[in-house]
């Protein structure tokens, strides 16, 4: 119910598609009053819920044409069919069927269906197709299926393993979320592949791989359990798992090769037929496509030249150099404006061109001067103009810039998920910043203008705000992307410790009073004794706590308050006590702690960054497989070829040959160094001291 209510509040009731997959829905009747409000609803996805039956009357969903109810827990197919018969416009149906008889039952009772389980329904040759399918099944002697019972059995197995771990509530929610997302991804990929018309052995192999991947989720959870309880057994299970996975992969390849060899003669025959003239009917289309491709490639080259010109100007302005604008550049700009008006697909071309997305790292080095863009105030000026004072680009306020950073972070998370689902390599944060600007604005001039704004804001606020400083370091690959989540935890820890302190000091205060005191301190000052208590609780290392307190000492201030007349002695005594207490702005207190964490993390990664940059010749934060193997060798952590291959299977499973700096840090933070119980990144860091 809450899901639909949020959809209505956010998007209204004019939607034509509603996604309710994996929402643990057990009774659709409760959702029906809200679904009826969507008058234009044409497609409804209820995949992966816990429905045991459908409402008897769905006739009020008059415009619903496509319905997906796969992977539910229906007990009576006849009841489901009778309910579906009440949908007046239904023509596309996705439903899990166990036999051919159930498929015939659907087709007979729902004659208006055009598509069933992504397959067109043809009444005329239906009997012939059934006989062919039956003969194929009988010939193979094997029918591989993946039913709802299989998913339920795997879910029970997953719950059993989860009970062994005995995690806290938050960790259990996280594990359950990972499990649900994994199942969702695997089932979506399976549906997509099954929709393709492939030979039976390919279909069976696809289903087997899906089953294998589903149980792989449980296997990984089981291994992580022993990682916490028995390191040696965990290593044995990991090696056993990898060998088992490799055997399954080899077996799959063998099946593919055997079937392919059986089809070589038929394929060669088709090739000969194609060579004799059957493909010549598409010759005109091929020539037209080739011509369009050449035109796009030509335009792409022009865009590359334009980008280089803009970037050179931007770099020179950033260095404070004087720029001579000649007539050639001006004429080129005029021609580019005309081209932009005639090209509708500029943003797509920019997105496809990697050179348009990659920032030159020199643009965001902190030691360089402020950037600016070119301003032509007078179109009647001479073509040869010596620009001495660059134009000031738009200045963002700190709040505007932090909102933009959050927007880029959120876009990066979604884009990373899309890349993972599509088996594509991840982008670095600097690459994605340009991807984000390209998707949001499209025009190259706007993209460069906003890039300049971001660069200026980084230098303007980098020393004053920790969130900005962390973003800049992530862009320059001086810090991994995951570190920003750690900083959020530090902020939350500070607030929790402050709340604990206030509760201990004022045990008779109500929750509302404590919250009011928290809000007051968050927006203004906290006392020195409160700050010192938080620091000492957070940092068990005395050297760290003393170092932070020493930095805070310069920011403590002595508030001055006048004691007013007509006060009780107790009130006057309280004011005098507060007057004697040193205070510090909460924002400064928090920044000092966050800056300490950031510098400690940067020091922690310093040796790894040094090795990574030696191999990352173009300094774009990306290395390939050969460079990754060399990185392992240079780090000298004792990993063998088997370990390196296991690392590659995790960090680059689809052999994209693009491994980012943040991916390496994340992997080495999770993997233990051979022969030790410490993460690889920790071993590297300690060896540098």
From TrEMBL:
Keyword Kinase tagged: no
Protein's recorded name: EF-hand domain-containing protein
InterPro entries documented for this protein: EF_Hand_1_Ca_BS, EF_hand_dom, Leu-rich_rpt, Leu-rich_rpt_typical-subtyp
One Gene Ontology term of the molecular function aspect: calcium ion binding
Parts forming coiled coils: 154-181, 286-316
Keyword annotations from UniProtKB, A to Z: Coiled coil
Listed PANTHER family: CHROMOSOME UNDETERMINED SCAFFOLD_7, WHOLE GENOME SHOTGUN SEQUENCE (PTHR16306:SF1), TRANSLIN-ASSOCIATED FACTOR X-INTERACTING PROTEIN 1 (PTHR16306)
An example Gene Ontology CC term for this record: cytoplasm
Species this chain originates from: Paramecium sonneborni
Domain EF-hand: residue ranges: 603-638
